[in-house]
Design goal:
The protein is α/β, with parallel strands linked by helices and about 150 residues long. It contains 2 helices and 8 strands, in the order αββββββββα. The N and C termini lie far apart (about 70 Å). Bound molecules: copper (II) ion.
Length: about 150
Amino acid sequence: MKFLTIFAAILVLLPCAAKSEEPTHHVVEVVTDADNLRMYFDPKVLLIEPGDTVTWKNLFKEDHNVVTYPDGFPKGSEGLNSPFFKESGDSWSHTFKEEGTFDYHCIPHILLGMHGSIVVGKPSKAADYHIPNRDVVAAYRNRLVE
Ligand SMILES: [Cu+2]
């Protein structure tokens, strides 16, 4: 009887274990709420696993992009730098291989609070973030004021 219970438990749990091995495809909606002058990513914070892919999808005809801060991604990984979305339906995808936190924003609408975070596996501590050199920070500042 005990053996049957354990056997049944294995049968129930096996599909769950197999499922978590599969990479997941997530969607972040890029939203323009023109009536309320709000622009935002939904969800704003997304928890995923290494190997998962995130697609940002522009829902309205408005220019947006997805860019990490110069120090806004984990050491040993690459930051996010999408082309501009222009039309409704434009999208861009990234597969996250390294663990940690990716803090990103839309450059034209950073002052409206259009930012978000992807946490891959576990959040980064301050010392885990990439340290950019002076030239990279200067180039980023130039992009902001363009
Ligand atoms: Cu934007």
